[in-house]
Amino acid sequence: MKAAWYEKQGKPADVLVVGEVDDPVPAAGEVRIRVAASGINPGDVKKREDAFGYGMPFPRIIPHSDGAGAVDQLGDGVPAEWLGKRVWCYGAQSYRPFGTAAEYTVVPIEQVAILPDSVSFEQGACLGIPIVTAHRAVHVAGPIENKTVLIQGGAGTVGKTAIQFARQAGARVIATVRTDGDLASLGDSGADHVLVMDDSLIKRLKELAPEGIDHIVEVALGANIAMDISVLAQGGSISTYATNVPTPAIPVWELVFINARLFFVGSDDVPNAAKADAVAATNQLLENGWQNFQIAASLSLNEIAKAHELVEHPTGPGRVVLSIPD
Questions:
Q1: What is the CATH number of domain 2-127+292-323?
Q2: How far is Cα 256 from Cα 242, in angstroms, rounded to an integer?
Q3: pTM (global) more than 0.90
């Protein structure tokens, strides 16, 4: 099969190779997917460039954890009705060497979900990591029905998805964005209020939630922790899936005085039951007509280096995907 891979870490044009490799064969409990679209997440780019200093976990890596296509082979123990199904998958390259940047990928059946006919393969390829991250970040502290939830960075992929999950769960949803342009992009997001991050933000949040915010989903912990504490309710919670700086200062006493709870969310290591809940919630949204992600660019497998560069240096909003075959 045709695939893209790297055997050393570095810049995309220096390390990504496109060529022929053996077709994968599903083991027991796995399916093989004929990949139609491969989604590229920031985490895929960070793995390739060794942003966290973990090195190469495998001698050769076919990148990308998320993808969509049709099941074309079944491993032992997988029900026959899966054959030929349109699906999306997640975690294809989580603790595994070979992801979705190829004509075929092999994934445990637990990491595969039916893709509704109304949803394109490109959209399906964008689902995995963002939906697991967003759903866990929204729900990790417990039930949120009738509570006030703040989504920081609401214009981002995880932020937009978190808005949907919070609304689905019956929360009152406030989202923040950085610019007026982002504000326009969230016009039909489902949030009850969308606020631009400016000098009046804390004042406006306190006006909207005078008793405090019950739960905050955070994208930039280091930058926003002081503001989060200033608007958080007594016993409130913060879940963060990203930070603007690797070692942010944490004002411990301020968090202690309001009995705050702080959760850290990494999609690869979310408990399996929580991942299953995220998949079920996502397909419910899709079946109800959710138009999930804007596609900024769809490139061929041969253009994977350019695709990675676009993720590193976006020229506009939306996701970058590979269309496979070319």
A1: 3.90.180.10
A2: 22
A3: yes
Amino acid at 206: K
Quote the pLDDT of residue 316: 79
Considering the domain delimited by 133-269, tell me its CATH architecture: 3-Layer(aba) Sandwich (3.40)
Residue 10 CB contacts under 8 Å (≥ 6 apart), including other chains: 48, 49, 50
Which residues, in sequence order, are bridge partners of residue 320? Answer: 297
Nearest to 269 by CA among 109, 94, 105, 100: 94
Summary count for the chain: helices (H), strands (E): 11, 15
The closest alpha carbon to 219, from 182, 264, 254, 268, belongs to 264
- pLDDT tens for 121-159 read 999 999 999 999 999 999 999 999 999 999 999 988 999
Average pLDDT over residues 86-105: 97
Find the largest Cα–Cα distance for the chain.
Answer: 61
